[in-house]
Write a structure and sequence with these properties.
There is one protein chain. The chain is mainly β and about 750 residues long. The protein folds into 4 domains: about 230 residues, no CATH class; about 80 residues, Immunoglobulin-like (Sandwich), CATH 2.60.40; about 180 residues; about 170 residues, no CATH class. The strands form 8 sheets. It has an 18-stranded parallel beta sheet that branches. A 16-stranded parallel beta sheet has the order 9-10-14-17-19-22-25-28-31-33-35-37-39-41-43-45, with no helix packed on it. Strands 1-54-53-50-51 form a 5-stranded mixed beta sheet, with no helix packed on it. A hairpin with a 6-residue loop joins β48 and β49. The chain starts with a strand and ends in a 20-residue tail after the last helix.
């Protein structure tokens, strides 16, 4: 048997090869050479000359040097692996912290940035990316930035308590103050008087005017019981300061806007079950006025000011704004409160123990007020600004739109999420000084995008210092900095797992892409994942392996998934995505106008620890053909491997047979450039070997890197490659600018699988 090496369409051949149609006699070499070259240039290149730099390989070999910060598994990707199934270009197990690992990766020609990830033993990932250029690139996971000492939030053994003592300053009222009937001996009020001790009902007519008595230092108020339906919508309701008003069970007091806004200082209102205070105006609690409600309050607005207290144990409905203003004004909710806005200002204090629903914004914008949620709190927007002393979530906070935080420059001011508590928000924005303190097993979930711009190295998201981990979860974590040169856009400290499907790129604001590619490490990272204090990043929203937080009334829970960690052994068929494949598509040139490059199609896996598997994907020729690796046959004859006869074509019009693993290559660096050839034998026993093309000449074999899912679809039988991929000819004529051709195909002209 005589073997002739063919490297281009222009190579001399003494054989006739069957290319997808039929066996032929020997050709005249000179005639065949001229005809094949002419047909390829005219048919595939559209008459254009082949670029002298054309390698007919869409992958480029790049040397990468990586210094991990932890032991684990190293993977190189063409796109970020966070939250998506990107096929790795290379995998190396057993990398060591601080020890440089050098490898060569075959990156797609259009890939101008490599993403380097190191997975620790639990599957958590640290990721860096680097712009590729000429020669090699270096990636270090060291962080030279000096981190300030972690702020210590105020914590107590059983959870989080504010500095303001609600139980001492706004104690729960005694049940004896909520009356089912007017006390015995109390008579009906028939006319206005001073400091009365009477009751009124719907029979009371005219204006109500109960004035007080001066005791030498203050007004001495009276006591008024209200029963039945007392409607003062169109008449005055006045009772002197320091009075006590009891709404008997099922009583209703309806007030004009003027009366509701001028309730007197120091009065105590007790609203019994079934009773109600109703106004179409603003209900104002001012100057030490207290309302203790076990019935219903209904108003257009409600404000609590200047040492006043609203203690609700049933229902408060505010069609507009609910506000607390200054001087230790307090709202305690042991029932249900609804409003369109909650505004906490000055030295005011709000504690929700059961359920509050704010259909608009919750605005916390004072340096010394308190917001504590011990129950279920729902709001459209949550705006936490100016750095209040105590903003604490001890149960479940649901924000249906945006959680916004921008505080004063001090670690005393932060949002504290208690152990086992949860926050769920549609979006999150940290702008300027920001601190999130997350307790053990707590979850802060962002359903869509968390936009980070915290501006300083000590700001950020803190998990607990020890014990169980907290989770900060987001679909996307985006860079919100106005300047590309800003460092410390986001920081993660202590025992927190950052679980996201997309995180903005790591880099250093004080180093250019070229400096980072040369291995330089900056002092100002775009984000810090502070592994030294325990922070970790999961490979996806549910990519943590050792975190499992059950859902509860207070916590949305966190359920782990399976991260992309150590590789699994190659199975006997093409493994499921994501695995990167490099395709070798051959022509055997039995005819000179057939350029479908499907006579043999091979796929080689990206190397894992230097080993790649070789798969047979298609066989479009009709003569005996074998695959060789560096001169040694790999697997069975291609038709026999598919368990068909020699004249049967496989997977050239559609996928009809499973792909077959022919063998394995070891010591692989560039999986796109292995010495793979095919050897075709004609009917008289003569064989021809088809190998990689010479640079700048027309090919018998093209090499194509898979997309981010590892796939490429070859042309159907007798469909020229330029008809399947209309950009192929432009790439042939301009290697640098045409590399995107392999992602734009005509679906009806390729074999999809």
């Amino acid at each position: 048997m005589k073997t002739t090496q063919i490297s281009t369409l222009l190579a001399t051949t003494a054989l006739a090869l069957a290319a997808c149609t039929q066996d032929k006699d020997l050709y005249d070499a000179g005639y065949y050479k001229k005809q094949a070259a002419t047909n390829f240039v005219n048919t595939i290149m559209g008459g254009q000359a082949i670029d002298a730099n054309q390698t007919w390989n869409t992958a480029v070999a790049t040397r990468v040097v990586v210094t991990p910060a932890t032991d684990g598994t190293l993977k190189i990707y063409p796109a970020s692996p966070i939250g998506q199934t990107t096929a790795p270009l290379a995998t190396v197990d057993g990398v060591r912290a601080g020890v440089a690992t050098e490898l060569t990766v075959a990156r797609p020609q259009t890939c101008d940035r490599l993403y380097v990830a190191v997975y620790d033993a639990d599957g958590y990932v640290s990721e860096r990316n680097v712009a590729v250029g000429e020669g090699s690139v270096s990636v270090s996971f060291a962080d030279n930035a000096t981190r300030a000492a972690a702020p210590a939030p105020r914590r107590v053994p059983d959870g989080l308590t504010p500095q303001f003592d609600f139980s001492a300053n706004a104690p729960k009222p005694s049940g004896e103050n909520f009356l089912a009937a007017v006390p015995a001996g109390v008579t009906l009020l028939t006319q206005n008087a001073a400091s009365c001790n009477n009751y009124i009902d719907e029979t009371f007519a005219g204006e109500l005017n109960i004035w007080g008595a001066w005791n030498g230092s203050a007004t001495s108020g009276g006591t008024l019981y209200i029963k039945g339906n007392c409607d003062f919508t169109n008449r005055n309701f006045y009772i002197a300061p320091n009075s006590k008003i009891y709404l008997i069970e099922n009583a209703t007091l309806t007030l004009s806007a003027n009366a509701a806004g001028n309730l007197q200082a120091g009065c105590d209102f007790y609203v019994a079950p079934g009773a109600a205070i109703v106004t179409a105006g603003a209900l104002k609690l001012n100057n030490g006025l207290h309302i203790y409600n076990r019935g219903t309050l209904q108003a257009a607005k409600l404000s609590v000011n200047n040492h006043s207290i609203l203690y609700n144990e049933n229902t408060v409905t505010v069609s507009g704004e609910l506000s607390t203003e200054n001087n230790n004004s307090v709202i305690v909710n042991d029932g249900t409160i609804t409003a369109t806005r909650l505004h906490t200002a000055g030295s005011s204090h709000v504690q929700n123990n059961v359920g509050m629903t704010i259909s608009g914004a919750t605005d916390i914008d004072s340096n010394n007020n308190t917001w504590v949620n011990n129950g279920q709190y729902t709001t459209t927007d949550f705006n936490y600004t100016a750095g209040s002393n105590d903003v604490i979530n001890n149960c479940k906070l649901t924000v249906t739109n945006r959680f916004y935080i921008n505080l004063g420059d001090t670690d005393r001011n932060g949002f504290q999420n208690d152990a086992d508590a949860g926050v769920v928000t549609k979006t999150f924005e940290a702008a300027g000084p920001s601190f999130l303190y997350l307790g053990n097993r707590s979850v802060f979930r962002v359903e869509e995008t968390a936009t980070m711009n915290i501006t300083k190295d000590v700001y950020g998201i803190y998990g607990p210092a020890s014990g169980d981990y907290a989770v900060f979860e987001a679909e996307t974590i985006a860079n919100g900095a106005a300047s590309a040169n800003q460092g410390f856009v986001a920081n993660y400290f202590r025992h927190v797992v950052v679980a996201t499907n997309s995180h903005f790129a790591f880099g250093y604001s004080d180093k250019s892409a070229e400096q980072q590619a040369a291995g330089e490490v900056g002092a100002q990272p775009y984000y810090r994942l502070d592994a030294a204090s325990g922070a970790k990043m999961a490979s996806s929203k549910h990519g943590a392996t050792d975190i499992n937080i059950p859902a509860s009334t207070c916590n949305p829970g966190y359920t782990p998934g399976t991260p992309a960690s150590a590789p699994t052994p190659a199975p006997a068929v093409v493994p499921t995505e994501p695995t990167m494949y490099y395709f070798y598509a051959f022509e055997d040139l039995g005819v000179t106008d057939d350029f479908d490059f499907n006579d043999v199609v091979l796929a080689v896996t990206a190397p894992a620890n230097g080993t790649s598997d070789i798969y047979l994907m298609a066989a479009g020729g009709t003569l005996p053909t074998v695959v060789k690796l560096d001169g040694t046959q790999v697997g069975a004859e291609v038709h026999a491997a598919f368990e068909v006869g020699t004249t049967t074509m496989v997977n050239t019009t559609a996928k009809s047979k499973d792909f077959v693993r022919l063998g394995q290559a070891t010591g692989v660096t560039d999986a796109s450039n292995l010495p793979l050839t095919i050897v075709v034998t004609n009917t008289v026993g003569q064989s021809t070997e088809v190998a990689a093309p010479v640079r700048g000449e027309a090919p018998l074999m093209i090499r194509v890197a898979g997309d981010t899912s590892g796939k490429w679809f070859w042309a159907k039988e007798r469909v020229n490659i330029s008809d399947a991929y209309t950009g192929f000819g432009a790439w042939g004529a301009n290697y640098v600018n045409g590399g995107a051709w392999s992602s734009a195909y005509t679906a009806s002209n390729v074999v999809a699988y």
